[in-house]
Write a structure and sequence with these properties.
CATH class of the largest domain: Alpha Beta
Bound molecules: zinc ion
Radius of gyration: 23 Å
Strand content: 15-25%
Helix content: 40-55%
Number of domains: 3
CATH architecture of the largest domain: 2-Layer Sandwich
CATH topology of the largest domain: Nucleotidyltransferase, domain 5
Number of helices: 12
Largest sheet: 6 strands, mixed
Length: 417
C-alpha cells in the first residue's frame, strides 16, 4: 500500500466501495470475504482491508467460520452488526411528535411519542429537538454511536434547506423548519450530526424499502392515509420526489370535478373524501371549531356504531378509486397502506378499498396489485426517518441532500403563492 495521503477522489471511491460491500451484505447476510470479492469485482485484499475497517467501526460482525470440508481457511460469514451504530428518526405530525432509535438492521430500539404541545413553529421544533436529545442521550449512554437524524414533515419539503413549503393540515406555509431544527440541535450539542428532512409519506416509503424484505420490492408506493393523504414512491432503488419535492401528493389529485372543498383550496381532491377529517365529518365527530374529535370517533368505533363504520366504509371505497389511479400510473410491485385512518378504520376501511380496487381490476381482466399494511403502523414515518439516514449513507453516489446542524442554509426555495 502507498503511504501517500488520499485525495478527495480516492476517499470518495473508497467510500463507494465500502458502501457497496455493506449493500451486498444487507441484501444477503452471511456472505464471506471471498463471496464479496466475487460479487463486487474488488480484489480480495481490498475487500479484506475494507471489511476490517467496517468491523472496527461497528458496521459489521463476523459469525463462526463455516465447516465446508474443504482444505485451507474456512470462510467466515459476515453480517450487519446491530449493536454499535444507531439511527434516529422523527416525525412532526399535525398533532403528535414521534421519535425512534433504530439499529442499522431496522430493529426499533427506543420509541418516544408525545402530543404536539403547540403548532407554533418555534415551539414545535423545540419540542421535537428536546425529544431527539433525550433519545440521543440514551443511545450514547449505551455506548453506541449516532449516525444521523431523519425528520418527517407533514407536507412538501425542500430537502436541502428544510423549508416546509406547504402543510395545510398544520397551517404552515414556507416555514423554515430546517433552520430552527439546526439551531436547536447545535445548542443541544448535536451540531455535527447529518440531518435529513423529507415529507412524511416519502420517509415511510423509504422505511418499507430499506428495512424490508430482500430482494426489495420495487417500485413500491406507500400510501399514507391520515388527516392528510399522500404517497411516497420508491423507483429504481431511489426515492422519487419530482422536480420540486412534491411528487406523490396524491391526496390532492382530483376525484370529482367541483367536488368537496379541500384543505389545499381546490375542489374535489381525494383527501376531501379519504382523509380522516372527511371520515370524522361523516361520523359526526368534528368539534365546533372543525377539529377531529378523536375520543368521540374512537368511542363510536368501540361500540361498532353504524355511523362510524359507514363513514370508514365510504372513505375506504374512495381510497379504492385512488389506489386504482396509483396502480395504473406506477404499476408498482406493492402498494403499502399506512397512517392513522388505516389504524383506526381497520378492516372496515381496508376491505372497502380492496373491494373497489378489485372491481377495477376485474373490469380490466387483470389480477389486482399486491396491497399490504405498513409494518410499523403509526411509527412508519419515524422509522422511515431512521431508514433514510441509512439509505443516504449506503448510496454516496446519489449525493442525497443533507445539512449539518448549526450551518444556516445558503438560500431557501421560493414558496408558491
Ligand atoms: Zn387538495
Amino acid at each position: 500500500m502507498s503511504s501517500a495521503p488520499m485525495t478527495g477522489d480516492q476517499r470518495f471511491v473508497k467510500n463507494l466501495n465500502r458502501m457497496a460491500l455493506l449493500r451486498l451484505l444487507r441484501d444477503e447476510s452471511g456472505l464471506s470475504r471471498a463471496d464479496l470479492a466475487m460479487r463486487s469485482g474488488l480484489t480480495k485484499s481490498t475487500v479484506s482491508l475494507l471489511i476490517k475497517e467496517l468491523i472496527d467501526e461497528g458496521w459489521l460482525a463476523e459469525d463462526d467460520a463455516l465447516v465446508t470440508g474443504a482444505l485451507g481457511r474456512r470462510p467466515t460469514p459476515l453480517r450487519l452488526d446491530g449493536r454499535q451504530l444507531v439511527l434516529i428518526g422523527a416525525e412532526l405530525d399535525t398533532d403528535t411528535i414521534r421519535v425512534v432509535a433504530t439499529s442499522i438492521r431496522g430493529e426499533v430500539l427506543e420509541v418516544n411519542q408525545a402530543a404536539l404541545r403547540s403548532s407554533e413553529p418555534d415551539a414545535a421544533c423545540h419540542q421535537l429537538v428536546q425529544m431527539v436529545t433525550s433519545q440521543s442521550a440514551k443511545v450514547k449512554a449505551g455506548g453506541a454511536q449516532l449516525l444521523g437524524i431523519g425528520v418527517g414533515l407533514p407536507g412538501a419539503v425542500d430537502t436541502v434547506s428544510g423549508v416546509l413549503q406547504l402543510a395545510p393540515n398544520i397551517g404552515w406555509r414556507g416555514v423554515e423548519v430546517g433552520r430552527r431544527l439546526r439551531a436547536e440541535l447545535a445548542a443541544a450539542g448535536l451540531g455535527g450530526l447529518p440531518v435529513y428532512y423529507q415529507n412524511e409519506a416519502d420517509l415511510a416509503a423509504v422505511g418499507e424499502a430499506e428495512f424490508g424484505t430482500r430482494p426489495s420490492e420495487d417500485p413500491l408506493v406507500y400510501v399514507s392515509c391520515g388527516v392528510g393523504v399522500g404517497s411516497g414512491i420508491i423507483l429504481n432503488d431511489s426515492l422519487f420526489t419530482g422536480a420540486t419535492g412534491s411528487a406523490g401528493e396524491i391526496g390532492h389529485t382530483t376525484l370529482f370535478v367541483d367536488g368537496r372543498p379541500c384543505s389545499c383550496g381546490r375542489l374535489g381532491c381525494a383527501e376531501a373524501y379519504v382523509g380522516l377529517r372527511a371520515v370524522a365529518a361523516a361520523a359526526g365527530c368534528l368539534t365546533g371549531d372543525g377539529r377531529i374529535d378523536r375520543p368521540a370517533l374512537k368511542t363510536l368505533l368501540g361500540k361498532r356504531a353504524a355511523k362510524a363504520r359507514d363513514a370508514f366504509g365510504a372513505a375506504g371505497d374512495m381510497l379504492g378509486v385512488l389506489l386504482q389511479n396509483v396502480w395504473t400510473t406506477f404499476n408498482p410491485q406493492v402498494i403499502v397502506l399506512g397512517g392513522e385512518a388505516v389504524a383506526l378504520g381497520g378492516d372496515q376501511f381496508l376491505d372497502a378499498a380492496i373491494s373497489r380496487l378489485g372491481q377495477f381490476a376485474s373490469q380490466a381482466g387483470l389480477p389486482g396489485p399486491e396491497v399490504r399494511v405498513a409494518r410499523h403502523a403509526e411509527l412508519a414515518t419515524a422509522v422511515g426517518g431512521a431508514a433514510f439516514v441509512l439509505h443516504s449513507l449506503l448510496r454516496p453516489y446519489s449525493q442525497a441532500p443533507t445539512a449539518r446542524a448549526g450551518i444556516p442554509p445558503a438560500s431557501t426555495t421560493p414558496v408558491p403563492a
